[in-house]
Design goal:
- By secondary structure, this protein is mostly beta strands.
- It has one domain (24-160): Beta Barrel (Lipocalin).
- It has 1 helix and 9 strands, in the order αβββββββββ.
- It has one helix at 4-19; strands spanning 30-34, 51-57, 61-68, 71-79, 95-99, 102-111, 114-124, 130-139, 151-160.
- Mean pLDDT is 79; it is low at 1-22.
Length: 163
């Protein structure tokens, strides 16, 4: 009986390792489709067209192409080891970095004609078929009211498109 315990334990560890997801630092690459029924940004989107995100990454940069109907937006973020300073709306290039297994991108973009800073934190589910993106948008409006927020947050869910 004592012989079977180590063999059973070894078998269990092997099966657990085989079932574990591969390196999530490369698993974000691919095509993703927004699940509008589970996403907050879908409520503010006036298009009935599906939204797709194509992510391509190298060791140095991350490229994100968003497509909805005839509209395309391409953003390139350079990877940094870890941010040394907080991100701000100063026209500097966007950046990408790892926060554990989460992929974080920061940059500026236009929202309703206003330049805003944004941070998107991407996480994968266990089988890497679903990507959750937590978005924070910061507006620098030049004035402040006591207790006023100059940011908004949201959560979107994307499903991996398999070929």
């Amino acid at each position: 009986m004592s012989i079977w315990l180590p063999v059973s334990l070894a078998s269990a560890l092997f099966l657990q390792a085989a079932a574990a997801p591969s390196d999530s630092r490369s698993a974000f690459s691919g095509t993703w489709r927004l699940d509008a029924s589970r996403s907050e940004s879908a409520a503010s989107n006036d298009s009935a067209e599906p939204l797709f995100v194509e992510i391509t990454q190298t060791d140095r940069e991350l490229t994100i192409v968003t497509t909805q109907g005839a509209r395309h937006n391409r953003v390139v973020h350079g990877f940094v080891a870890s941010p040394a300073t907080p991100f701000s709306i100063d026209g500097s290039a966007g950046r990408a970095y790892w926060d554990g297994t989460a992929l974080v991108t920061e940059g500026t973009r236009l929202v309703q004609g206003q330049t805003v800073a944004s941070r998107e934190t991407r996480r994968l589910n266990r089988d890497q078929s679903e990507m959750t993106v937590e978005v924070m948008v910061i507006v620098q409006h030049g004035y402040e009211f006591r207790g006023a927020k100059n940011y908004g947050t949201g959560r979107d869910v994307y499903m991996r498109v398999t070929k």
